[in-house]
Amino acid sequence: MAGRLAGRHILISGGGSGIGHATAMRCAEEGAVVTVVGRRLDCLKEVARLTRGHAIAADLTDEAQAFAAVNDAAALMGCLDGIINCVGNAEAAVLEDIDLARWDASLRTNLTSHYLVCRAALPHLRKTRAAAIVNVSALAGIRPGVSSAAYGAAKAGVIQFTKTLAAQLAPDIRVNCVCPGAVDTEMMDRFLAGKSASQQDAFLARYALRRLAIPLEIANLLLFLVSSEAQYITGSNYVCDGGRAYQ
């Protein structure tokens, strides 16, 4: 029986770990040819081995590297009809501790990388039918945090960028966004490191479901949005946060 993504060719940025890793696995399970792109070649190669796909090491905040990676992915797979942008990195800091270099680095990682991949992919996506882009933002993009000025600003930008692209590229290319809440990844491990058990319990108590998401739960939503099952959905932002947004 053919999978939900049979015949699809999908590039996943940030595919070496966390949500990107889980998304690559799910897309491959559903029949897609997958290329994962990111900085950590050892992790990417392992994902490529598991998915029988391709791995490309690149700094996606760099224009030349981003364009080369997207073009190489299209060449390796024969075409490109899906993009899932999972690149992101949160760094908690209050405004007085964010110098211009840290500000720029956060925006380049969390927003500019999405822009560069999308821009590089457009010529390839326009050659195919039912092309789709899914950008991963974050709950910080819609819910302010006291120590997420740069990260929150960048992730809010991803949401608006997504909606603008959806309007611009319709009807040929669908573009949607997902805002995860707290997910059990290396990034979350760094955030929770050093916090006491009571502090961790208090953090989880902010979520209606009282737990972290696992990457697979976010990956399933990303898979749906890039698939033909979501062919009438564009310009939407899906919040997958275990009930944090209304707490």
From TrEMBL:
Q: Where are the transmembrane segments?
A: none
- The keyword Oxidoreductase is assigned to this record: yes
Presence of keyword Transferase: no
- Which is one GO molecular function term here? oxidoreductase activity
Which residues belong to any copy of the Ketoreductase domain? Answer: 8-186
Q: Where is the signal peptide?
A: none
Q: What InterPro entries is this protein classified in? A: KR_dom (IPR057326), NAD(P)-bd_dom_sf (IPR036291), Sc_DH/Rdtase_CS (IPR020904), SDR_DHRS6-like (IPR051122), SDR_fam (IPR002347)
Write out the coiled-coil annotation as residue ranges. none
| Stored SUPFAM superfamilies | NAD(P)-binding Rossmann-fold domains
Q: Note the superkingdom of the native organism.
A: Bacteria
Keyword annotations for this protein, in alphabetical order, are:
Oxidoreductase
Tell me which family the UniProt entry assigns to this protein: Belongs to the short-chain dehydrogenases/reductases (SDR) family.
- Mind telling me what this protein is named? SDR family oxidoreductase
Q: Which organism is it from?
A: Bradyrhizobium zhengyangense
